Amino acid sequence: MKNGKAVVLVVEDSTIIRMGAVDLVLSAGYEALEACDADEAIGILESRDDVDLVFTDVQMPGTMDGIKLSHYIRDRWPPVRLIVASGAAILEESSLPTGSRFFSKPYDSHAITDAMAHLLSIRNETGC
């Protein structure tokens, strides 16, 4: 958390969808960071220690998709909470790291912000 605000990293290769997700994060009262692929997201995570939640798309160009990215993040930065979304794939949450949430696109904005609030409150309660 930075200045009392949770920091959410949005990882999405589509500029328009990423802009909408960033607006959603900001309107929920969080600080938003953005990356266009997994490599850029990892670079941000390596350079900052205040990212609380990553909201990633599944299908992206680059070295890994959102599913692999979510597992990489869980292994390397266990306290970071994860939300994964996809317009093409319907996933079982069991294919994601424990505690992650999955949403199909188009997703309901309120469902996403509710999930962010829930995941971030769990993080704050446990002190992780």
From TrEMBL:
Sites bearing 4-aspartylphosphate, chain numbering: 57
Domain of life: Bacteria
Domain (Response regulatory) ranges: 7-120
Listed SUPFAM superfamilies: CheY-like
Record key words, sorted: Phosphoprotein, Transcription, Transcription regulation
Pfam families hit by this protein: Response_reg (PF00072)
GO biological process: phosphorelay signal transduction system
Alphabetical list of InterPro entries matching this protein: Bact_response_regulator (IPR050595), CheY-like_superfamily (IPR011006), Sig_transdc_resp-reg_receiver (IPR001789)
SMART domains with a match to the protein in the record: REC (SM00448)
Protein name: Response regulator
Source organism of this protein record: Rhizobium sophorae
